[in-house]
Specification:
- By secondary structure, the chain is α/β, with parallel strands linked by helices.
- The chain folds into two domains: 4-13 and 247-379, Aspartate Aminotransferase, domain 1 (Alpha-Beta Complex), CATH 3.90.1150.10; 16-243, Aspartate Aminotransferase, domain 2, CATH 3.40.640.10.
- The chain has helices at 16-27, 38-58, 71-82, 97-104, 123-128, 152-158, 179-182, 231-242, 244-253, 255-268, 311-320, 340-344, 349-352, 366-379; strands at residues 4-5, 65-68, 88-92, 109-113, 134-138, 148-149, 164-167, 186-190, 201-205, 274-275, 296-297, 301-305, 323-324, 329-330, 336-337, 355-359.
- Helix 10 runs parallel beside helix 14 (366-379).
- The structure holds pyridoxal-5'-phosphate.
């Protein structure tokens, strides 16, 4: 049975060139990038080359990038490394669980910025809620479940001196993003969302903005992140970043397919299924090269609510038919919990457990979507 993978926001289909280069490093010869001998220097050189490719793809200086094991670690590092107990922090209601987890350990006063029924924020809410004790604001560039692109630049301009942390994990590799232009002070990305191997992420700090390291005890990454670097994953990320333009072109080509899918879901009728958010059309070129001043939509993501079908049951049935998709977030038992993101849109707990996320990738073709629709038609 052919498996149709439509869970690219969870982890992207590996890029062939990135995997090949990463595998070469995994095969050896042995090399620790901190060693001063020739092999160590070669590994160091490969890491620095990756850093340059990633910096170029993000429009920033490579000196301001720090490698981590992924975006979860990057978020924990920045949140714990910028905030102290008692500080005030503004956080959008739709952030990734990694953000909430990192905030738990800090003891800061967390003020949640709500979203409307379509998942949009009002940038002025950030400005209005800033006070002297506000030390950080957190807003993602694009939402992993509903695909909304957020006006991070408009938000940054509301914040004055308060630094903005942008989780750019889902935007990177799907739409053009120049971090300098977002107005953010800090940003994070993750390699496995753009076709690199799992196990490498990046922190960007504007102008080398300070933060306390989470992992200490080694001089790696200029003392900002101790621990032996994952050379293979970093090299893979560098290669994926080097080829980012071609990935972006393929993502752009998904726009009509997403719109077709949206149209087909509409034909099911609201009793059976509907796409979340009235403005979910990826209607213009500007959605693919966002200004970061207004809301937009990722070209590959469509969140669908299925009022008569519990998400986990539908997912299982689709899985049996060969489709890999996601719904809400899995809890420790593997069961599905209502999506906090859909809850933040003002939907009931019941509705929030009926989410089906379709996230397409560079290898998705129209027949995959046609088959999905045919199965959905049967199942719901
Ligand atoms: C928006 C967002 N932030 C952070 C993360 C965490 O990334 P990582 O898997 O690299 O830890 C994810 C991954 O699902 C994500 O979608």
């Amino acid at each position: 049975m052919k498996v149709i993978y439509l869970d690219e926001n969870a982890t992207a289909t590996p890029s062939r060139v990135a995997s090949e280069m990463a595998s070469e490093w995994l095969r050896g010869p042995a090399a620790n990038a901190s060693s001063v001998h020739s092999r160590g220097r070669r590994a160091r050189g490969a890491i620095e080359e990756s850093r340059r490719h990633i910096a170029a793809s993000l429009g920033v200086s490579s000196r301001h990038l720090t490698f981590t094991s992924g975006a979860t670690e990057a978020l924990h590092t920045l949140i714990g490394g910028v905030l102290s107990s008692g500080d005030h922090v503004l956080v959008s209601a739709v952030e990734h669980p990694a953000v909430w987890g990192a905030l738990e350990g800090v003891g800061a006063e967390v003020e949640v910025i709500p979203v409307d029924a379509e998942g949009r924020v009002n940038p002025t809410h950030f400005g209005e809620r800033c006070r002297e004790s506000t030390k950080l604001a957190i807003m993602m560039a694009a939402q992993n479940e509903i695909g909304t692109i957020y006006p991070v630049r408009a938000i940054a301009s509301q914040l004055g001196q308060v630094p903005l942390l942008v989780d750019a994990v889902q935007a990177y590799g799907k739409v053009k993003i120049n971090l300098e232009e977002t107005g953010a002070t800090f940003a994070v990305i993750s390699g496995h969302k753009i076709g690199a191997p799992q196990g490498a992420g990046v922190i960007w700090a504007r102008g080398g903005a300070p933060f306390q390291p989470l992992l200490r005890g080694g001089a790696q990454e200029r003392g900002r992140r101790a621990g032996t670097e994952n050379v293979a994953a970093i090299v893979g990320l560098g290669v994926a970043a080097k080829h980012l333009e071609s990935r972006l072109a393929k993502m752009k080509a998904l726009r009509p397919l997403r719109e077709e899918l949206r149209g087909m879901i509409k034909q099911f009728g609201a009793q059976r299924a509907w796409a979340l958010g009235a403005f979910t059309a990826v209607s213009s070129e500007s959605d693919l090269t966002p200004s970061w001043l207004v809301h937009g939509q990722l070209p590959n993501t469509l969140a669908v609510l299925t009022p008569q079908q519990p998400g986990d049951l539908l997912l299982q049935r689709l899985d049996l038919a060969g489709f890999c998709l996601s719904s809400g977030s899995a809890c420790s038992s593997g069961a599905l919990e209502p999506s906090p993101v859909v809850r933040a849109l003002g939907r009931s707990e019941d509705e929030s457990s009926k989410l089906l996320r379709v996230s397409m990738g560079v290898e998705t073709d129209p027949s995959d979507i046609e088959q999905l629709i045919a199965h959905l038609d049967e199942l719901i």
